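Bug #2210: token dump truncated for YkgJ family cysteine cluster protein?
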Amino acid sequence: MSSHPCLRCGACCAFFRVAFHWSETDACAGGLTPQGLTEPLDPHRVVMRGTYGGTAVRCEQLRGQIGRDAHCGIYALRPSPCHALQPAWEQGAPSPQCDKARVAHGLAPLTPADWPAGAGAA
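Reproduced locally. Full output below:
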């Protein structure tokens, strides 16, 4: 079992809208994210199901319990916004997005001490 903090968290997956260009879906040559897991946002973008809005944002691909054992059900096929959101201090820098999502779910922001020695990039 990994000690990577993201495998306990999942807050970002239950806080942010995950919008991206439709060409990242498997409906387009070279796209990876399954189109069936998205819904239209506008003529050029789609969103991951469950993240479009309302009061209960939670990506349908988030598995497990936030803050305990959360993980992505399609990690290898996740879209660019998921790749782009960096966990705080994983690369030695803060991440206001990570902090904001964690705080919204009652979790403390990550610190450099949350990273196992030698963990580096996940």
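Output looks complete on our side. The mean pLDDT is 92. Marking as cannot-reproduce; reopen if the truncation happens again.
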